[in-house]
Structure formats: C-alpha cells, structure tokens
C-alpha cells in the first residue's frame, strides 16, 4: 500500500509536535519518515490524513496514541557492544578503579551504579552487565545495578523482557558470549537470569527532570543527542551531569562531542575512546 503524502503545513505541525513530546527534531526534509512511520497509526485510527491523526493524538486523553507516535518516530537502532571501545574502557579502567576505590572505603557489598540513558531495546545495558560479570565474577558479592531509561514504551518492554532474535544476537556477540550469557528459548535467546537481575528498565523522557540523586558511577548516553537541537542537547547533558556521582564518567556516542556546549565537563582519553568527567567545583 502506498503511503499517504504529507503536506507542507502538516509536516510543520507534525515536526513541532514530535519535538514537543520527545525532543526529536526532524526538519522539513524528513516528510518521508512521517509518511512511512505513521502509516499504521493512520489505518488503525481510520484517519483520513495527517492533520486528522494529529488532532486525534492531541485530543486522546489516555495518551495511548501519543505513546504510539513516540514509538513510531524514535529510531531504536542499537546492538550489543556497539562501538566496542566504551566497553573496553568500562572493563579495563572504570570498573577496576571504582571497585578499588569503594573497597578501600570499606563499603560492603561494593555498590556500582550504571545508567544506560536512551537504552533502546536493552543491548547497551546487557553489554554492561556482561562486562560486570566477566570483570567481577560472582555478582552477588556486589551491589551492582544498571538502570535503562528510554522514552519508547515498546523499547522499554522489549529490554525488560530480555529476549533477542538470532539477528540481534549476531550483531556484536561472539558464539562464546552467547553460550556463556544467554539461553536458547525456541528461536530466540534469553539473557541469563543473573545478568537480567542486575538491570531495571523504565520509561523516561531525558529532557525532563530525572528524579535521581547524584548516584551513577557511569552514564552511557549514546546516539540520542544527535536527534536533538543544540539547546536540548545542553539540557540533556546538564541533567545527566546532575545524576553523575562524584568522579563518575559520562560516555557519549563515537560521533558526538560536548566541546563548546557543556563547559562543566572535561574530556579524558583512554586508549581509543574519550569519556567525560565533571570539572572540580562545577555544580
Ligand atoms: C538510536 S537509539 C540508541 C540506543 C543506544 N544508546 C545505542 O547507542 O545503541 C536512540 C534511543 O533514544 C530514545 N530516545 C529518543 N528521544 C528520547 C528522549 N527524549 N528521552 C529518552 N529516550 C529517548 C529512542 O527511543 C531510542 O531508543
């Protein structure tokens, strides 16, 4: 079935609406994205055009349609150990140093808090769980918790479920990783319970206030800021800065940079990757 064409005015109105509800900024050249991604919702709601669908979405008091629009208009592309280098940083530097520091301070079991901000379907959070398991051994000797946040309900539900297709498993994992950390269930693979238990997934809009104290030792926030305008990127990284524990590390996408937009962070280099820490005395 061919997609209903979107008019110029409808594109402007939809662009504004999507930005308002999730921060994703789609310029006038992205009409095809609305046409292809909202087609199912058009049919489901029996809307005669984009203006009518927008009207119904805004009027829907349950917010169910709004959530479906968010699911449709966000890009959930992800994979296990995406870009590899940040996970080497976690494995060889951040976790050993953190455990060393916390052990010396006598805290038992040693707390470790990791945030996967914009976690999509969970591959990033479970990759960090795999690194924790392989670095620390018995996870029950630690108080290790990973929180995954994403605005897409569909992505959060999939992440919580912890089941992956062959195609997803093949992206980033070796056969040995799969044998160690997953069990086959029918034609899918389920992350093992010990790793599943370290991670919690929640719906959240990262452009709104996050109700968390300065808590996280490591924050991954990769491949989401690219969809935001510069003011929203600044807001996002300030929010994450407030959620970072003293001495904590912020890891962003390999094509992203905080230079010139967030002076409170300073870059640190480790092997092939850059991570950020808050400058001393910054709020
Ligand atoms: C391309 S994926 C990145 C996933 C993962 N971080 C990675 O790098 O593999 C971007 C994710 O950002 C989420 N997202 C977009 N806007 C968001 C917002 N305002 N708050 C929270 N998550 C958002 C999308 O739902 C999507 O799952």
Summarize the structure.
43% of the residues lie in helices and 21% in strands.
Walk me through what this model shows:
The protein is α/β, with parallel strands linked by helices. It has 2 domains: 8-73, no CATH class; 85-278, Rossmann fold (3-Layer(aba) Sandwich). It contains 12 helices and 10 strands. A 5-stranded parallel sheet has the order 6-2-1-7-8. Strand 7 (216-221), helix 12 and strand 8 form a beta-alpha-beta unit. Helix 6 packs across helix 7. The longest helix is centred in the middle third of the chain and has 20 residues, at 85-104. The radius of gyration is 20 Å and the shape is globular. Residues 22-24, 74-78, 82, 118, 120, 124, 150-152, 155, 204-207, 222-224 line the site of S-adenosylmethionine (SAM).
SSE blueprint and pairings:
Elements: H1 8-22, H2 31-37, H3 39-44, H4 50-59, H5 64-73, H6 85-104, E1 110-117, H7 123-136, E2 142-150, H8 153-161, E3 163-164, H9 166-170, H10 175-181, E4 182-185, E5 188-191, H11 193-196, E6 199-203, E7 216-221, H12 230-243, E8 244-252, E9 265-270, E10 273-278
Parallel strand pairs: 1-2, 1-7, 2-6, 7-8
Antiparallel strand pairs: 3-5, 4-5, 9-10
The structure holds S-adenosylmethionine.
S-adenosylmethionine binds at residues 22-24, 74-78, 82, 118, 120, 124, 150-152, 155, 204-207, 222-224.
Which characteristics define this entry?
binds S-adenosylmethionine; alpha/beta; 43% helix; globular; 283 residues; single chain; Rossmann fold; three-stranded antiparallel β-sheet; five-stranded parallel β-sheet; 12 helices
């Amino acid at each position: 079935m061919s997609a209903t064409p979107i008019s110029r005015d409808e594109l402007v109105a939809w662009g504004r609406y999507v930005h308002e509800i999730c921060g994703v900024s789609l310029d006038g050249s992205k009409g095809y994205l609305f046409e292809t991604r909202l087609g199912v919702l058009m049919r489901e709601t029996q809307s005669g055009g984009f203006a009518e669908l927008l009207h119904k979405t805004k009027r829907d008091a349950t917010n169910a349609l709004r959530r479906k629009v968010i699911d449709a208009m966000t890009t959930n592309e992800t994979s296990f150990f995406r870009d590899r280098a940040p996970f080497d940083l976690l494995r060889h530097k951040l976790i050993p140093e953190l455990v060393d520091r916390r052990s010396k301070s006598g805290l038992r079991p040693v707390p470790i808090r990791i945030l996967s901000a914009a976690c999509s379907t969970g591959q990033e959070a479970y990759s960090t769980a795999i690194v924790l398991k392989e670095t620390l051994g018995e996870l029950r000797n630690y108080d290790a918790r990973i929180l995954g946040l994403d605005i897409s309900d569909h992505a959060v539900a999939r992440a919580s479920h912890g089941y992956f297709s062959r195609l997803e498993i093949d992206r980033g994992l070796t056969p040995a990783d799969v044998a160690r950390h997953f069990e086959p269930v029918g034609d899918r693979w389920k992350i093992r319970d010990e790793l599943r238990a370290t991670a919690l997934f929640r719906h959240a809009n990262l452009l709104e206030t996050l109700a968390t104290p300065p808590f996280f030792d490591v924050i991954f926030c990769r491949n989401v800021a690219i969809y935001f305008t510069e003011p929203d990127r600044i807001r996002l990284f300030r929010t994450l800065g407030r959620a970072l524990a003293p001495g904590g590390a912020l890891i962003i996408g390999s094509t992203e940079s905080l230079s010139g937009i967030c002076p409170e962070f300073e870059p640190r280099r480790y092997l092939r990757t850059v991570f950020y820490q808050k400058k001393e005395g910054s709020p």
